[in-house]
Amino acid sequence: MVTVTYLASGEHFVAANVGDYVYPYDIRINNQNGRLDILASGVAGGIWERTVLFEYDLRARREIAQRGVTYKDLPAACSEENRNQ
Fold it and tell me: What stretches of the chain adopt beta strand conformation (E)?
């Protein structure tokens, strides 16, 4: 589960909740459009592979999209070197 805490108000919101044994793998913030993108992957219920993409609107404080995807169809993740630029 990924939660967002707003420091000014102290409010907490769930940005992504995919269930047992599926964990956040990559989280990215887009400050320009106020979005939080979350990739979660794992073995749901200990039985089947599950990969889910979430999009959370930081301004409206709500999840706006959730899509199941095939992990092998995702583009390659950024290298550590590119992430720090």
Answer: 2-5, 12-16, 22-30, 35-44, 48-57, 62-69
Query: In terms of Cα–Cα distance, which of 3, 84, 12 is closest to 38?
Result: 3
Coil, helix or strand at residue 71: helix
Q: Are 63 and 56 in contact (CB under 8 A)?
A: yes
List the structure tokens of 58: 């930081």
- Alpha-carbon gap, residue 48 to 74, rounded angstroms: 18
| Residue with the two structure tokens 């940005």 | 15
Domain locations in the chain? 2-70
Position 66: which residue type?
Q
Residue written as tokens 């993740």?
77
Tell me the pLDDT tens digit for each residue of 42-55.
888 778 888 999 99
C-alpha–C-alpha distance, residues 53 and 25, integer Å? 10
pTM, two decimals, is: 0.78
